[in-house]
Amino acid sequence: MSDEVLESIPNQFNGSCFGCSKENPVGLQMTFKAGKEIVVSDVKVPKHLCGWNNLVHGGVLTTILDEVMSWTAIHFLRKLVMTKNLKVTFLKSVLVEDCVKAIGRIKKKNNEKEVVMEGLILDQKGRECVKAEANFALLSPKIAKRLGISEDEYPEGFK
User: Fold this and answer.
1) Which of 24, 56, 75, 83 sits at a 20 to 30 Å CA gap from 140?
2) Residue 46 in 3-state DSSP?
C-alpha cells in the first residue's frame, strides 16, 4: 500500500455526521482517499474523545472503523449503506492526538443487498491497533429516501 497512489474522495453529502462532516465542530471530520482496492483516512483524534486518561475511547475507534468501511462500500459499489453488524477486536491502545491510519476494504459482496467489509487502524509506526469486520446493507434509492438518508434523488453517479 505504501507505493499506491491515493486519490481524494469528495464528500458530496451534507449533514452533521459525527464521522465525516466538516459542519460538525465536535466530530472527527474524517476525509478519505481511495486506492485500487482500499479507502484510507488519516485521523488525529482530539483529546476530548479520550477514554482512560490519554487513550482514545473504544467507541470512537469503532466509529472510525465503521466510517472508513462505509466510505469504502460507498466509493467502490456506488451505493448508500447502513451497518447491519460490526465486530471489533482491540489489539493495542491508541493515544489521543496521535495520527492513525484507518483502512477499509471489501471482503465479499454477498448479494445485491449486502456486503462484508474489513477495517483496520494502524498507529504511527504502522502497527495494527484495531481491526473490524462488518456486514452492510446496500440501500436502494427507494429505501434510502424512506429512511431520510437521501432526499429526492440518489447522489450523482450512484445506482
Assistant:
1) 24
2) coil
